[in-house]
């Protein structure tokens, strides 16, 4: 099991709490990255939105790719899974940027999290065309074909519905072979078909182990039919670790005390409209992102350890954690969960 966490590029993860003491600044991101590497974390997911999805559009948020490049330069071991939305990036130019960051990290420390552009207003405000749901995945498949081709050979010619490149050369190639890991998530049929065909790893919203296991089985079936090897499987989870369940429950009530007037809830209906999910998402779920509370990592250290064991048995090998405030809770989780889990 690898342990990762979401870099708080939006200044936190709780839509109902204005100030989580984890500001969206380079200084705070650097502090987190350096310390997390020291205490046993393996990976950080750097999300990409140009407007702040959590604290409201007027709040600051960090750019994913320049932040990831800088974090790679100031750490030695951490992998950075950087979100990329094909509608916002030329595939040839992004392939070049990614290869460069891969070299900065010495190879094996840069991966892509290919995500759908669900937020229509953000696209309009940044002058980007917004595709409807299935069209986004058709674009993504073509986008990934261009990126993968450029990472593996020179003189690439490609002409598709969305992209065209002619005799393109990309040097240097990524150090990571055969390529940097490509992660993606999605619950629609269009998403799962594209991911099974084009990606290396499947990342899921939070759910209990009994719901995660069938999803992994389905993806493995799809891979087998395509004669492709097994994938890596990750899942988002919000963690609350306390000495007693009563204390954990008190913290849970604090972070799900829904205040629909908070700026972070303004795009709730647009998010629902722009995605195709297998399950209904309540405002309480939306208080933290990616259905993280449904993972059930809430309770005493032993309760959380037991639940992680169940996820490992279900087929999960990467947890992408959120917590608040990040620095303090990250320390607690590392000491009380990661170290015992690894027998340290």
Question: How would you describe the overall organization of this protein?
Answer:
The chain has one domain (2-341): Luciferase-like domain (TIM Barrel). 42% of the residues lie in helices and 15% in strands. It has helices spanning 26-38, 64-74, 91-104, 120-125, 133-152, 189-198, 209-225, 245-255, 268-274, 283-286, 301-314, 326-341, and strands at 2-6, 43-46, 79-84, 110-114, 156-159, 164-168, 182-184, 201-204, 232-238, 240-241, 298-299, 318-322. The two termini are 14 Å apart. The model is unreliable at 268-274 (pLDDT under 50).
Layout of secondary structure:
Blueprint: E1 2-6, H1 26-38, E2 43-46, H2 64-74, E3 79-84, H3 91-104, E4 110-114, H4 120-125, H5 133-152, E5 156-159, E6 164-168, E7 182-184, H6 189-198, E8 201-204, H7 209-225, E9 232-238, E10 240-241, H8 245-255, H9 268-274, H10 283-286, E11 298-299, H11 301-314, E12 318-322, H12 326-341
Number of helices: 12
DSSP helix fraction? 40-55%
How many structural domains does the protein architecture include? Answer: 1
CATH topology: TIM Barrel
Strand order of the largest sheet: 1-2-3-4-7-8-9-12
Q: What is the class in the CATH system?
A: Alpha Beta
Under the CATH scheme, the architecture is Alpha-Beta Barrel
Question: Distance N terminus to C terminus?
Answer: 14 Å
What structural category do the secondary elements indicate? alpha/beta
Strand content: 15-25%
Secondary-structure element string: EHEHEHEHHEEEHEHEEHHHEHEH
- Rg from Cα: 19 Å
Question: CATH H-level name... which superfamily?
Answer: Luciferase-like domain
Secondary structure: number of strands: 12
Biggest β-sheet: count, sense, barrel? 8 strands, parallel, barrel
Low-confidence stretches: 268-274
Shape: globular
